[in-house]
Amino acid sequence: MCLKCDQSDLFIKFSLLPFNCPRVPSTKRIGPHNYEIISILIGSLLGDGSMEKDGNGSRFAFYQEKTNGEYLLWLHQVISSLGYSKPEIPIIQTRKGTNGQIRYSYRFRTYTYSSFNWIYEEFYPNKRKVVPRIIDQYLSPLALAVWIMDDATLHKNKGLRFCTNCFTLKEVQYLASVLEKKYSLNTSIHKTGVVNQYGLYIPKSSMANLTKIVKPHIHPTMLYKLLSI
């Protein structure tokens, strides 16, 4: 049998699968996943995004407080328009904070894909989120922009601080090396004041370069995080 014909039939079979249909089992949601969606997902995992196992597949979960609601709704619009989540707009949810105050937030999940399992295995090898060694391959300008929008704050000295508290010192050092080698960004690592927690900083001197890299991908409500705005 002709190998070329076999591959053609296989491509046709996979291309006709409705990978964004809720009723399709995760093992049959093949994709394909383009670089845009992978960049968004990887960038979010470095920030507030998370993954969870669901049957034979994996899915992504996104969460933001009400103050960042416009960004979360924009993120949902992008992901749902690519066919990776339900189109229904996330509704605001409430929960009690540690001090008893009511907190308002938005959240949504992607569909479940077995073809997302490789990302889960990289980021959650022992069910704890880590920084995998594939980051240097996937930290595109879009991924970096999503990471900033998700989890970075403009520091009082006009630099940018990433909330990398949940990562180990070695993982934060690796992220710093990727930013330096891939984008020529100066970085520094500071203790947060909590044992074994570290923050990754980009100083004011590198903010113009950073802005040039990520500004095309930044949502208008998040532009305040960039020095030159």
UniProtKB/TrEMBL annotation:
InterPro entries found in the cross-reference section: Chloro/Mito_RNA_Process (IPR052500), Homing_endonucl (IPR027434), LAGLIDADG_dom (IPR004860)
Pfam families named in the record: LAGLIDADG_2
UniProt KW Mitochondrion keyword: yes
Keywords on record: Mitochondrion
Top-rank taxon: Eukaryota
One MF annotation (Gene Ontology) recorded for this entry: endonuclease activity
Domain Homing endonuclease LAGLIDADG: 39-210
Keyword Mitochondrion: yes
GO biological process terms, semicolon-separated: Group II intron splicing; mRNA cis splicing, via spliceosome
Matching PANTHER family: PENTATRICOPEPTIDE REPEAT-CONTAINING PROTEIN OTP51, CHLOROPLASTIC
Protein name in UniProt: Uncharacterized protein orf229
